[in-house]
Amino acid sequence: MGDNNGKGSFFAKLKNGLTNTRKAFLGRIEDIFLGKKVIDQETFEELEEALITADVGPAFTYKLIEKMKEQVSRKELDSPEHLERVLRDSMTDILKKTEAPLEIPSDGLFTIMAIGVNGTGKTTTIGKIAHHLKSKGRSVMLVAADTFRAAAIEQLDIWGKRAGVPVVKQKPASDPSAVVYDALQSAKAGKAQVVIVDTAGRLHTKTNLMEELKKMKRIMAREVPGAPHEVLLVLDATNGQNAIAQAEIFKDEIGITGIVLTKLDGTSKGGVVVRISKELNIPLRYIGVGEGLDDLRPFNSEEFIRALFEKND
């Protein structure tokens, strides 16, 4: 995505953005092994606690500790450096499995429905994806289907202007499905190749919200074969394990084909990337590390691990 210079600067941003996660995660692990000559039961208990606190999740932690214990018993794990390598390799294996960039066919109409709780950066994410696709020569249309909040419509409008793409909207409190219907008619008439729908995310009225999203999905499927082609869940990394709980709800109720993890630059809970990959088993499409138009990039597991483990000069 972009040239090497762009990639380099994104890597620097990612590395910088993961500073708090690195300190909380690797810093704690390094402290555990400081001055230790042997890896014993107490070491494993401290390590387990450090991993759980880092939001990598109990499933990954259990499997990793078991793997390490087995290697210690075979005398294969005799130094903190070896242990860090096992940790790094285990994380890479898991993240590789869910690394799958969003593939949009070059012909036909492609529809994306963006879902997620308010405050996760959903609208901002949509604007950035639109900018990225437009820079690749795609014609994109945004749809303001979060009609519940006037601010959401305005925000999408601003991002539409920034990305240079049209926004289909109606007045606040309109029926969201009607807005989606109108947008799809326009897109089918040749006005856009990619349609990205912004939806409401007010979880405190969960039943109503889920019914609204299901209705939207039905209308999209009726108007365009196979739509929505991508149901993209936007999660906020600062929410840590709460992000997993949100994902479970949307996964069960709506179905999810891809995940975007935002705000990795503002958290010490970046380990949640591992938990998302291990427990949800849904492709991680993009990660975000800032406010700029280019600060959302397709997820690359090796780049992420390198940025997390590389020490600052």
Describe it:
This protein has 313 residues and is α/β, with parallel strands linked by helices. Helices cover 54% and strands 12% of the residues. It has an 8-stranded mixed beta sheet, sandwiched between helices. A hairpin with a 7-residue loop joins β7 (284-288) and β8. α1 crosses α12 (301-309) and α2 packs antiparallel against α3 (41-53). The protein is elongated and about 70 Å long. Mean pLDDT is 90; it is low at 1-6.
Question: What key attributes describe this structure?
Answer:
single chain, 313 residues, alpha/beta, 8-stranded mixed β-sheet
List the helices and strands and how they pair.
Blueprint: H1 4-17, H2 19-33, H3 41-53, H4 58-73, H5 80-97, E1 110-115, H6 122-135, E2 140-144, H7 150-163, E3 167-168, H8 176-191, E4 194-198, H9 206-223, E5 230-236, H10 241-253, E6 258-262, H11 272-280, E7 284-288, E8 296-298, H12 301-309
Parallel strand pairs: 1-4, 1-5, 2-3, 2-4, 5-6, 6-7
Antiparallel strand pairs: 7-8
Helix pairs in contact: 1-12, 2-3, 3-4, 5-11, 5-12, 6-7, 8-9, 10-11
Return the structural class.
alpha/beta
Characterize the biggest β-sheet.
8 strands, mixed
Please report which band the strand proportion falls in: under 5%, 5-15%, 15-25%, 25-35%, 35-45% or over 45%.
5-15%
Overall 3D form: elongated
Distance between the termini: 26 Å
Order of helices and strands: HHHHHEHEHEHEHEHEHEEH
Summarize it.
The protein is of the alpha/beta class and 313 residues long. The chain contains 12 helices and 8 strands. Strand 5, helix 10 and strand 6 form a beta-alpha-beta unit.
